[in-house]
Amino acid sequence: MDILEKIVADKRLEVALKKQLIPTFQLEQSVLFERETISLVKNLQNSPSGIIAEHKRRSPSKQVINHNLNVFDVAQGYEKSGVCGMSVLTDGKYFGGSLDDLLLARSSCNLPLLRKEFIIDSYQILEAKAYGADVILLIAAILTQEEIKSFSEFAKNLRLEVLLEVHNEAELQKSIMPSLDMIGVNNRNLKTFEVSLQTSKTLSSYIPNEFIKISESGISNVEAIKELKPFGYQGFLIGENFMKTDNPGESANHFINQF
Ligand SMILES: O=C(O)c1ccccc1NCC(=O)[C@H](O)[C@H](O)COP(=O)(O)O
């Protein structure tokens, strides 16, 4: 079993249990359910840097990144820094995140928020909306073409934007459809955890121009972004590079000021 298979196996158990504990009608009663969402697409289209900054305490590849910060400060710092959006990892077992992190981020900033989660059930999309997300992530490697279609259409009906994540050409070919807004290429090989910007460069030409292109993982300096922009990338998802510091907001600000 590779890491993604392990995460998904655990996620299926977690979601089955949650569905019994909190029925969907309760999620739909959240005060956040009717809020106007904020567009990450628009922010990326109007930004010279295109940074989406992530809240990430730990990960399968790095174990502990930072357990000393609170989401409230991180979200406020990211907003002040001028990033386009914030990604909040909500998986508990592998990343130390939670839906409460999403809620706290929502209460502390007006950035578009991406729920970074391993979505395998439309129930998690309702959760995303109920806890204040503006964008959901769909990972092509763990979903069928039919699931990508039904989950992305379900999200669009809730006025959430959809970021589809791919690792290779086959995932991309099966997934391209009009109900997606952004396509993210993940530079991390999930079998070896190695990161290579070459993945983004290679896949860029297969992504149709109507989708915003985002490069994800392993971005640690402005030079990487300068290398990727000529391949059409407008968004850059950065986690560890900011979160490993004492003040992720300040690190993001320093990063952006180099453009
Ligand atoms: O980060 C991991 O180790 C990881 C392992 C397995 C599945 C997903 C994983 N990461 C999720 C992400 O996509 C990254 O957190 C995100 O792209 C930011 O990456 P980085 O800037 O390298 O922290």
Automatic annotation (TrEMBL):
Signal peptide location: none
GO biological process: L-tryptophan biosynthetic process
Sequence ranges assigned to domain Indole-3-glycerol phosphate synthase in this UniProt record: 4-250
Listed GO MF terms: indole-3-glycerol-phosphate synthase activity; phosphoribosylanthranilate isomerase activity
The organism's place on the tree of life at top rank: Bacteria
Pfam family, one: IGPS
The protein's name: indole-3-glycerol-phosphate synthase
Species annotation: Bizionia algoritergicola
UniProt lineage: Bacteria, Pseudomonadati, Bacteroidota, Flavobacteriia, Flavobacteriales
The encoding gene: trpC
